[in-house]
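Project channel, design review

CF: Before we commit to the Rubroshorea leprosula constructs, I'd like one complete example in the thread so the newer folks can see what an input/output pair looks like. Taking Disease resistance RPP13-like protein 1.
RD: sounds good, go ahead.
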Amino acid sequence: MEVLSIVGGALLSAAFQLLFQKLDESIKSHNLQQEEVLDELKRWKLLFPQILALLKDAEEKQITDSSVKIWLDDLRDLAYDMEDILDGFQADAQRRTLTTKSHQASTSKVIRRFLPYFKHNESAFDSVTISKVKEIAQRLKSMVDRSTTLSLVSSRMQVREGTAGAAARRVPTTPQLESDVYGRDNDKEAILQKLLNDEGNSRGEVFCVLPIVGMGGVGKTTLARLVYKEVEQGRFNPQAWVCVSDQFDVMSITRNILEELTKGRCDLNNLNLLQEKLKGELSGKKFLLVLDDVWNEECNLWDNLKIPFKSGAPGSKIIVTTRNMRVAEIMGGKNSVHCLKVLENDDCLSILAQDALGVENFDAHPNLKNVGQEIVKKCKGLPLVAKILGGLLRDREDLEDWKYILNSKIWNLQGIQSSTLPAGLMLSYHHLPSHLKQCFAYCAMFPKDHQFNKDELIFLWMADGLLKQQSGDKNQMEDIGHQYFSELLSRAFFQHSSKDASRYVMHDLIHDLAQYVAGETCCNLENMLEAKKEVNAEKVRHLSFYCKELDISKRFEVLNKMKGLRSFIPIYSSALVGLNGNNLSNTVVHDWLVKLTCLRALSLGSYNIRKLPDSIGDWKCLRYLNLSETAIETLPESIGFLQSLHTLLLQNCEKFTKFPATIGNLNDLQYLDISNTPSLKDMPQEIANLKNLLILPKFIVGKTNGLRLSDVKNLLHLRGYLSILDLQNVSDNLDARQSNLHMIEALDELVLAWTSDFDDSREGSDIEAKVLSSLRPHQNLKKVTINCYGDGMMMRADGSNNMVRLEELRIENCPCLKRFPRGKLSATCRLLEIKGCARVQSLPEGVLVQEDDGGSSNNIENLKVIGLPNLNFIPSDDRLPAALKKFGIRKCPRLESISERMLQHCTRLEGMSISDCVNLKSLSFGGLSNLTRLYITGCDALESFQEMPELSLSIPNIKYFIIFNCENLKSLPNKMDNLTSLQILCIERCPGIKSIPEGGLPPSLTYLSIACENLKQPMREWGLHTLTSLLLFSIAHICPPKNVLPSSLPMLWIKDVQNLKSIPKGLLRNLNSLTGLWISKCPKLRSLPRKGLPPLLGLLWISECPRLKRESFQEKGEYWHLIAHIPQVSYMEDMPQFVEYPSVIEILVSLLD
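CF: and here is what came back for Disease resistance RPP13-like protein 1:
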C-alpha cells in the first residue's frame, strides 16, 4: 500500500489554506464586476472549510483505503485548477488596468494595436471562464459529497509542525561532510587493498571491476568517494567518476567518461568515434574509474561499454556501486564483490549526534542519549536515514521534541514495511514545514541524479508561487528562496554535487521520496514515456525533458494533453552543441506551447530560436521566461501583456538587438538579465518604468529618445552588478546628479563606461569630468570600474572618502587621463588596477607610501599597473604598500629598476610579475620571505641579477621562478642550488645566458625548462643527475648526453636541436622510468636508438622531424619493432602554420595565474 497520505496530506492542507487567501482577495478586490462569477466564488468560500476539515482524517485512512487515495488525488488536481482560475483573474485585472491607462494615454499606440485582441477581458468574463468557475463549484460540492460515502470525519485541521516550525526559523548549519563518515574504516581499507592488486580480472582483461553492493541509503557512494579521494596520488592516472543511474546509455556514459578524463567538452555523437577517442585517452595507462549507481542487467550493453577499457594498462580498476548483485556478476566482478552491510547502531548514533547536535556523541547531552538510541534502532542501519533524522532534530535540545519523533505513529503505519522508502525518510518529510514540503516535491520534476543550479531552482519556486513572505518580512523573494534551499540542504534533502561544486543533487532515495510525494504532477518526459505504468498526462503540471540537438514535434505530442502544465523546463547535458545550436520544432513553440495558458515557467534556453509568436500574450500567468543562449533577435510587442512576469533571462543572446517599448508594462518584472548581449546597443526609455527591478546588469544611456542617465533614479531596488554604458551621451551633468545613484544601496559592483571612440569632440571638453563628479554612488559599493573616460583629469575619484566599503577599483582604457584627483583611497580598498592610460605619469595619491609611514595607512593587497608608457614609476622616497600580496606591472617602459628600498615594507608579498618593461635594468629585493611566484618576461634591458648575490636569503620560499624573452640577460642569480623550495624553473628565449650558476640547480625542482640558444656549458656541469624529484625536463637547442639525467625522470621533451642527427647512445637506456617522450623540430634527426626505447614508455610524440619518415612508424616499418609496445604514438611531419608550440613556461603560467 502507498503511504502518500502521510507525506502529502499536509501539503494539500497548506495549498488549500493559500487558495483560501487568494479567493478572499479576489472577492474583496472589486475586480469581479460580474455578479454571476462573484456568487460562484462565494460558494467556493463556503465549501473550503469543509474540505480542510476532512483532510486530517483522509490522510490516515488513505493508507488502507484506495478510494480515499483517489479522493485526495482528485482534490489535488482540483486545487491546481482553482489556483489557475484565481491567478487568471488577477492577471486579467492587471490587463484591464493597463488597457484603461492606454485609452487615457494617446501616445500608447503599441498597446492600442493589441486592444482588440484582449477586448473580451475589459469588462466581463467570457462564457468559457464562467463555465469553469461553475464547474469548480460543482467539483468542490462533489468532493464534500464523496467524503460522506467514504466515511471521512470532519475535524479541525491542525498540522503539528512542532520542531519543523522552529526549524524553519533557525539559521541552517553546515551539513555533514564526508570526513565525518562513521563505521566504514574496515570497508574502506578492504577496497583500498583490492585496488593495490595489479592483477587483471578472471576473463584475462587488463582491468578489474570492484563492485560495492548494498541496499539504498547504506552509503555505497560515500564509501566509493572516500576510497577515490584516498588513493595514493599518482598510482592511477587518469581517474574519472561518472554517475550512471538507471538509464544505461552506452554513448552517453562513454562521452561522460571522456569529458571527465579530458576536463573538456566532447560534441561527438558517434559511438565508434567516441570509443576510439576514449581508447586513446586510456591507452597504456593504469586508470581508475568509478561507475556510480549502476542498474543495468543486460550483458550486451556492458560488453559494448567496456571495449575502450581494454586498452588500459594492467592493474586498472573500475569501482561500481549498485544495489543489485546481478549487476556485479554481469560486469565481471563476482569474485571481488564488496557487500556493504548496514551500520551498527553505535555508528548511526554518532551520525545522529553529529547532524542533530554538531558533536560526535551524547556526552554533553546525556538526557537525549536514551531516546537517541531508540531512534537509531528504527534507522535499521542506514546512515542516510540517520543523517536525515539528524537534520530534522538539528539544534533541538528539548527532550519532548526527540520523544515526539520517537513515538510518531508513522513508524508503525501499515504499508510502511512494504514500501521501498524507509520510514525515517517519510517521517522527516512529514515534519518539514508545509512551505518546504512544496518546494521539495517540486524537485520530482528533475530526472534522477540531475545536477541542478540553486539560483535556477529558486527562480522556478518563485514562478510557481512556492515562496511565502511573512507579514513584516522585508526580504526579497529570492532571499527567502535561499533560506528555503539552505534549510533543505542542511536537512540532507539536497547534497553538494561531487562533480561540480556549484551544483546540487538529490540522493536517489530522496529523489524516490520526491516522486512519491508529487505523484503524477511532476514528471520528466523521458521517464514518463518509458514508464511501465501509464502516466495520466492531464494531471502533469511540471515537466522537464532532456534537450536534444534536434527536438522534433513528435516527441512533444503529449503536450496536447497537458492543458494545465505550469513548468516546461529543458535539462541540458554536456553533449549539447552549445550556444543556440539546438533546434526545437516550430510546431512545439508556435502551435502547442502557446495553447498552454497555465504556464508559470518556460525555458527555451540554448535553442536556435530567432523569434517568439506574437500570441505569447496568452501566457497571462507566466512568471519565468528563460531565453538565454538562444538566437533571439527581439521580443514581440505582445510581451507587454505578460503582467505576471517577474523573471526574463536573456543571458548570452549574442544576436539580441532590441526591446519593444511594451517592455515597460511589466510592472512585476524583477529579474531582467541581459548579460553578454553585445548586439544590444540601445534600450527604450520605458525600461525606466520597471521600478521593481532587482537585476539589470546593463543600462545603456541613449542619445535622444532612449534612456536618460537620470532614469536610473526609478530603479532604486537594483542589486548586485550594474554597468552604465555610453555615458558620452550625457550632455548635462544635472542629468547625472538626478540619477540618485546614492540611493541604490544594494549594488555591490558598478561599471561606468564611455565609448572607446576618442574623437576630437571629446578632447578639451569638461562634460565627462562633470558627469563623473556628479555621480555619487552609495557607500555600500565594493567594486568600481571606470572605462574609456575621456577627460584629462578626474575631478572626483569614485574611490574617495564616501566609498567607505570599496574593495576593488579599476581604471581602464582612459588614454586622455593625465591626473587622478587628490585624496587617498578608501582604507578598505584591496585591489587597484590601472590599465591602458597612456598619459598618466603618477599613481593615485596614497597608493605609494613614504618611508616614515611604514605602509600602515594603505591596505592594497593587489596592485596591477598595465600599459602606462609615461608613468614615472616610483620616486626614490616612496615605497610599495606593506599589505601588498600581489604586484604586477606590464608595458611600463619608464620603469628602470626595482630596488630593495622600493620593496622594503612588502614582507607579505607572495607573487610578482614584471612583463614587457623594456628599460628595466636592475632587480633587487630582500626580506621577501613570503614570495613564492616570480615571473619576468620581455625585459630586454635586464642584464644580470648582480644586486641579488644570494636568492636564498632574499626570497627563501620561492616556488615558481620564470624568466622568459629577456634578450640581454647574461647571467642567472648565484647560489640557486640553495633555493630548497623551488619547484618550477623556466628559462626560455634568453640568448645571452651561456652558463648555469656555480653550484647547479636546486634539487627540489619538479619541472625544468631551458631554451637558451647560446647556452654552451656542458650539461654534465649542470648537476642534472641530482634532480631526483624532476617530473618533466624540457630542453631546446641542445640534446642531453647519456648519464646526465636522473634515472627516475618520467617525462622528457627535446626540441629545436637543429644539428641533432641521432639520439645519443645510452641516453634513453638509463631512463627506466620514462613514460613520455616528445621530440620536435629536429630537422636532421634520421634515426631512433636501435637498441630500443624505455620499457615503460606509454607515449611517443614526434613532430617536424622530416627525415624520420611516417612509413617507418607504421606496421612493418623500420621502427615498428621499437614502438609496437607503446600504447600511444603520434607522428606529424608538419604542423599547420596557425599552430604554435606552447612553451612550457606559457603552459605553467596559465596554470599559476
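RD: helpful, thanks. The chain is about 30% helix and 15% strand.
CF: Residues 66-104 form the longest helix (39 residues).
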